Every structure is written in C-alpha cells, then in structure tokens.
C-alpha cells in the first residue's frame, strides 16, 4: 500500500499561542477527523513540532486519489485555516515493523 506524508502549516507563526476560540473549534474537528482515520488504520502516525511550526502525518492509503480526498476532508484544510502539503513518501526505516 502506498505511503503519503501530510504536512500542515498554520496560518501564522504564533498560532499555538494566539489561537482564537473559533480556530480552536476547527482544530478540535481536525483532531477528531484524524483520530477517526487513525482508528480505521489509515494513519501510521500524526504529530506536530513542539513550537507548532507544522504538523506531520504519515498515511497508508490505497492510492493518491484517496489521499487527496482525505486531505480535502480535513476540517482545518476545508476551512482554509491551515495549508496542506502532500507528498508521496518512501519509508526507509520503520521501528514498528
């Protein structure tokens, strides 16, 4: 199954420190969305840098069209709150396997 990297970039450098209530609600929906994908076995891992510069997810999905649909369905992307970068990804080392 192909692996894809998903990097999301916040709207501003101090986003974590200055998040508004409306933005927090969108990010809550984003977290719930990713949590469901994880429970479905589609996500290998998701996290963010400590300073909030960006978030990163690694997905195992059947094809790029599915990956595009997953990205488009992310509430934070759909709302235009974060910008997503999509990359085909080749795993070289994987401690979990």
Keywords:
97 residues, alpha+beta, Alpha-Beta Plaits, four-stranded antiparallel beta sheet
Care to give the gist of this entry?
The protein is built from four helices and four strands. By secondary structure, it is an alpha+beta fold.
Describe the structure.
- This protein has 4 helices and 4 strands; from the N terminus they run βααββααβ.
- It is α+β, with helices and mostly antiparallel strands.
- The mean pLDDT is 93.
- Helices cover 38% and strands 27% of the residues.
- The chain has helices spanning 15-18, 21-39, 64-73, 75-78, and strands at 3-9, 43-48, 55-60, 83-89.
- It has a 4-stranded antiparallel sheet, with helices on one face.
What class, by secondary structure content?
alpha+beta
Q: Into which percent range does the helicity of residues fall?
A: 25-40%
Q: If strands are numbered along the chain, what order do they take across the biggest sheet? A: 2-3-1-4
Please identify, by name, the CATH architecture.
Answer: 2-Layer Sandwich
């Amino acid at each position: 199954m192909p692996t894809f990297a998903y990097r999301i970039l916040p709207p501003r450098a101090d986003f974590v420190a200055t998040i508004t209530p409306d933005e927090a609600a969108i990010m809550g929906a984003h977290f719930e969305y990713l949590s469901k994908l994880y429970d479905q076995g589609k996500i290998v891992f998701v996290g963010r840098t400590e300073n909030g510069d960006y978030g990163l997810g690694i997905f195992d999905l059947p094809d790029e069209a599915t990956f595009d649909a997953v990205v488009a369905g992310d509430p934070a992307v759909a709302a235009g709150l974060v910008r997503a970068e999509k990359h085909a990804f080749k795993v070289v080392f994987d401690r979990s396997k």
